[in-house]
Amino acid sequence: MQKQVRVSGKSKENMLLLKHLKGDVQGKELVIEDSIVNERWRQVLKENTDIENDLFNYQKNREISKVPFMPVDRLITNDEVDDILTALTSVLPTGKFTSGSYLEKFEDVLSTYLHKRYVIATSSGTDAIMIGLLALGLNRGDEVIMPANSFSATENAVLAVGGVPVYADITPQTFCLDPNKIEEAITPYTKFILPVHLYGKHSEMKQIRQIANRYKLKVIEDACQGIGLTDLGKYADITTLSFNPYKNFGVCGKAGAIATDNEELAKKCIQFSYHGFEVNVKNKKVINFGFNSKMDNLQAAIGLERIKHLSLNNFKRLFLADRYITQLAELQNKGLIELPELSEDHVWHLFPIKVKAEDRTDIMTKLNEDYGVQTDIYYPVLSHMQNTPLVQDKYTKLQLVHTEKAHSQVLHLPLYPSFTLEEQDRVMEGLFSVIKQKAGV
Ligand SMILES: Cc1ncc(COP(=O)(O)O)c(C=O)c1O
């Protein structure tokens, strides 16, 4: 009997699938087990799929003069627009824009996909983190250990509900919280660890869970950039997700979700997400307060269509990341840049490389001016370096050696599902030339 390659749509299986389709693993049968797979993916997925041609329609040497970093008008494809318009045609006449059956269906679909018993869809990832912290029992002044290189939403969610961010250093290769730096940040006020799966890389959750258990802390993970990771949620009390349009899976507006296996926590999340009302009983409060933070039924109807594209899109992201890593290896081998590692616990929300800090601005300018290639520093200011009264009051003496160094070197290259291989070739051509020129080689 032929050995099988499972197509589950998750990061670990995607790595095997990539190896299989590249011909590195022979003689295996593809078995599709993905709960959200779309028709195009199913049609394309064959033993002999040629990724460059069948998925990317690659025409080598096609002239490219401009490569945008993250073009908003390419975040959604025409296929998707048609499906969404059909969905809207069925929702709009019902008038059920906020609550309704699409929302329940969406939560079910996510729950199956994530292998989590409870999913509570929220109006954003930020709200998901706020609600998750409150449901886990955050009281004013409780400390939350977290990285300082995330999007401001992570710290803002903590601050908004009265928590105190305590920034711990990262592992520079992964940009994620370093488990070995957590214990030194623990004080008698610590109550939570909040790892962020930054750029789509899974944090070291097993180790983080062990530390949390040792010190009786709760773990709430910011997986806003991490949908599609294998075993997402396995080691956290609460998993939070974002579905804003820039994410690996987004709706046509703002949305997010909380996932957990704990029934009591799920109940609390439902209450905090809708004015503190008893579950399914409007206007009867059972906790002191709650937010107006449920995802809209209308966005859920859109989400049910768009989520069908997630697995194919995540596979495309992996393929693009692998292509960057393979083809830019020469620059890394010469010590001129540092590349992220291709690993099975990554969904490539962004593609970060490191360059010499003192050359970074010049590299970005030259890539743009000479090659039309836009690159970006996605979060340009670290949390403990923002110019706010809070930072001046509390964090000016804080030093996070690895976070600060990695942050001074990081450069994000374009990577998104509608990115073409011709555009990627242009980015790499520009990078080779500009980096070698800088190094004088
Ligand atoms: C790491 C991270 N955390 C939290 C958020 C907040 O999500 P949202 O924009 O849905 O509020 C985002 C996305 O914007 C994010 O990238």
* Mean of residue pLDDT values: 95
Helical residue percent band: 25-40%
Strand content: 5-15%
Largest sheet: 7 strands, mixed
First-residue to last-residue Cα separation? 53 Å
Class computed from helices, strands and strand pairing = alpha/beta
Strand neighbour order, sheet with most strands: 3-11-10-9-8-4-5
Number of helices: 16
Small molecules bound in the structure, each named once: pyridoxal-5'-phosphate
Model regions low in confidence, pLDDT < 50 over at least 5 residues:
none
Number of strands: 13
> Rg to the nearest angstrom?
22 Å
- H and E string: EHEHHHHEHEHEEEEHEEEHHHHEHHHEH
What spatial form do the alpha-carbon principal axes imply? globular
How would you describe the overall organization of this protein?
The protein is built from 16 helices and 13 strands. The chain is an alpha/beta fold. The chain has a seven-stranded mixed sheet, with helices on both faces. Strands 1-2 form a two-stranded parallel ribbon. Strands 6-7 form a two-stranded antiparallel sheet. α7 links the parallel β4 (143-146) and β5 (164-167). The N and C termini lie far apart (53 Å). The mean pLDDT is 95. It binds pyridoxal-5'-phosphate.
What descriptors fit this protein?
two-stranded parallel ribbon; single chain; binds pyridoxal-5'-phosphate; alpha/beta; 441 residues; 13 strands; 7-stranded mixed beta sheet
Quick structural summary:
Helix content is 39%, strand content 12%. It has helices at residues 11-21, 39-44, 51-55, 78-91, 101-114, 125-135, 152-160, 205-215, 263-273, 297-306, 310-327, 329-333, 360-371, 389-394, 401-409, 421-439; strands spanning 3-7, 28-32, 118-122, 143-146, 164-167, 170-171, 176-177, 190-193, 218-222, 238-242, 256-260, 351-354, 410-413. The strands form four sheets. It has a seven-stranded mixed beta sheet with strand order 3-11-10-9-8-4-5, sandwiched between helices.
